[in-house]
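User: What would this chain look like folded?
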Amino acid sequence: MKLSEGVEWGVHCAALLALAPPGVAVRREFMAAHYGLPDAYLGKNLQALARAGILHSVPGPHGGYRLARPASRITMLDVVTALEGSASVFTCQEIRQHGSGALPPAECVRPCTVDAVMKQAENAWRSTLRSVTVAELADRLPADVRKRNERLLGG
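Assistant: Here's the prediction, encoded as structure tokens.
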């Protein structure tokens, strides 16, 4: 499985926004420069997060982005799903029923063992991402990074 670089960008930006003072919107250009990212491409990712209800886009000269709900109510899975979709990462094609090694349908009543393992792994991955909020992620930042970012954001 390979996630797009937009997921990394989105998670970092959400954690950065979690450090902003209440009501403060952070400009896309600031976040792009802060992380050395292409402004236009970052904008597309931030718009996707806004469409998903994770970010709120604030128009105007003092506009930008802020979290749409408390950071403690946004999980890493929310961010990943907003940017990558919720489709399963593995789709069993039931190849055990094809080719010269095909099993008869009567032997394929139970789920494919490969599919079962892949679903188990995906469920574990999603569970881990669901268990970490953006607030927790921001709290895990090294203290000096957290304080510097808070200062840059006016906190």
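The chain has one domain: 5-152. If you want, I can go into more detail on any region.
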